[in-house]
Amino acid sequence: MTRLAQTEGLTDIQQEILSTVRDFVDKEIIPVATELEHRDEYPSQIVEGLKELGVFGLMIPEEYGGLGESLLTYALTVEEIARGWMSVSGIINTHFIVAYMLKQHGTQEQKDYFLPKMAAGEIRGAFSMSEPALGSDVSAISSKGVRDGDDYVLNGQKMWLTNGGSSTLVAVLCRTDEGHPEGTAPHKSMTTFLVEKEAGFGEVRPGLTIPGKIDKMGYKGVDTTELIMDGLRIPADRVLGGETGRGFYHMMDGVEVGRVNVAARGCGVAQRAFELGVSYAQQRHTFGKPIAQHQAIQFKLAEMATKVEAAHAMMVNAARKKDSGQRNDLEAGMAKYLASEYCKEVVEDAFRIHGGYGFSKEYEIERLYREAPMLLIGEGTAEIQKMIIGRRLLEEYRIQG
């Protein structure tokens, strides 16, 4: 382990898990990440290795075949994986959010059926909330689920679905007006449906189409897709929790832990960018000495390292708060906001340290430079995080009387 981004108070089991994952990242991910990323190739061999390590079941309770670990353990694992290649951490994250939502809100039958298969990586999860015209306004969801006998019929178009092609279970948020009179607040008439499907593209089950991968600037390898529902029939027992109208709360609970995950990803990418920058600065010579001996470069390294430490500390605090059973939307919002912004800044400074070589695809920093912007958007933009933080602060500091 390096000096930066250390976590106090970890158990022997947590340390062993993180050491194992870090070794895997160093040996199996970093050496091939840039090549796979440039080809936009799904990292099948890496995913199989993570399945064998038990990462897909890290937070799933032991009674369902998982490791039963904490959010902190999971977040620190994600930090290590993102340090190797952020796309791989995205593959894990969407699966984790669906498993978490099932664990927290699923019926006993849903838990018994899905969680053991998810822990083994046999079922791979994705969740779908966004839509083409939606942006950050979740209340404007237009996809609908209408009751028809023992089924619901789903229609609509979803967007920005990570793992859309490779997943076999998607948690889909739709509007359901059944039992909710006109004038009901939009967030009280939404339902999460558990949609099983085949992996792949095209029509993956009757009424459900995954058109293909969206071509992205970065965050390659992982498949990001649309999801089109046209008369998709879902049994009523696949309503998450067995009750309509709770979907918004289910999704927000999932997104809250997802924000800790995105913060962890930002920490991992920033850590790798610092490693690349501090290493290159000691190898590159100008004016007769390594550029690391120039004060201007030392200032950059100092700022980068401080940002890595600060983001890591906030991410750990948010994870521990959630693990304690306390409300953590304030801490998660702060951690996600700070870690994603600092990640962008640390990556850019490492890019600057590399000079012209940072612009070359032969150098790893070029890949990180294209990956970092996704973290500014994923699980809510900086503006959304500030809105959450501001509202919570006003709750905490409300003037009495």
Give a structural overview.
The structure is a single chain. The protein has 401 residues and is an alpha+beta fold. It is built from ten helices and ten strands. The protein has helices spanning 12-39, 44-53, 71-84, 86-105, 108-119, 247-283, 295-323, 329-354, 364-375, 382-396, and strands spanning 125-128, 144-148, 151-162, 169-175, 190-196, 202-205, 208-210, 224-235, 285-286, 289-290. A five-stranded antiparallel beta sheet has the order 2-3-8-7-6, with helices on one face. A three-stranded mixed beta sheet has the order 1-4-5. The longest helix has 37 residues, at 247-283. It is globular, with a radius of gyration of 21 Å. The model has no long low-confidence stretch (mean pLDDT 93).
Order of helices and strands: HHHHHEEEEEEEEHEEHHHH
**Distance N to C terminus:** 52 Å
Radius of gyration: 21 Å
**Poorly predicted sequence stretches spanning 5 or more consecutive residues:** none
What profile does the largest beta sheet have? 5 strands, antiparallel
What proportion strand?
5-15%
Give me the secondary-structure category: alpha+beta
Number of distinct helices:
10
General shape? globular
The helix content, as a percent range, equals 40-55%
The pLDDT mean sits at 93
Number of strands: 10
